Amino acid sequence: MMRFTKYLRSPLLLCFVFLVLLTVVSGLVLNRSRSPKPDITRPGWTGTISSPGETREVQISINGSDEISLNEDVVSRRELRPTISELTTGSEPVKFTLKNSEGASYATYVEVYDALRDVITDLRAKAAMQELGKPYATLSRLEKTAIDELYPLKVNEIFIASLERD
Question: Does residue 22 come out as left (phi exceeding 0), alpha (psi in the -120 to 50 range) or beta?
Fold first, then answer.
């Protein structure tokens, strides 16, 4: 026993023993943490849902006086969600670009972003029922990923600052 401790005093040997133990332990942990294969309940479903058509771009702008415009048309706060919903009813996926001008309030930004999120959530729920015949909340992770790829919540954000200074 005394001879073994004598060798562990060597920093190089101690480092080697530590690395070997770490490799063995991490290998055991990795083998146990593998996730099971996804459960696909729809027969013949490949895990992908084809996206119809090309992507259409919708520009939402908030100016310095908190006026909201969709594709250059001014929209009231009350008309915001129904108008966004109408723009997403086509067959092609929609990509949103949100432009904020200097002076636009954070409350208006949050209101617009919430409207976008709500519309995308509704689209995902409808697609889940139409494509898979189940509510979105009950889908497996793989099925949710396929629906999310069809209707992603990706918003390009652009901040427009004024270059003029007093």
Answer: alpha
115-152 pLDDT per residue, tens? 989 988 998 898 889 888 999 999 988 988 888 888 88
Orientation of helix 141-150 relative to helix 106-127, angle to 10°: 120
Residue 165, domain member (yes or no): no
As a whole number of Å, the end-to-end CA separation of the chain is 80
The three-class DSSP label of residue 57 is: strand
DSSP structure class, residue 12: H
- Helix (H) or strand (E) segment spanning residue 132: none
Whether 25 maps to a domain, the answer reads no
Taking alpha carbons only, the member of 64, 67, 70 closest to residue 161 is: 64
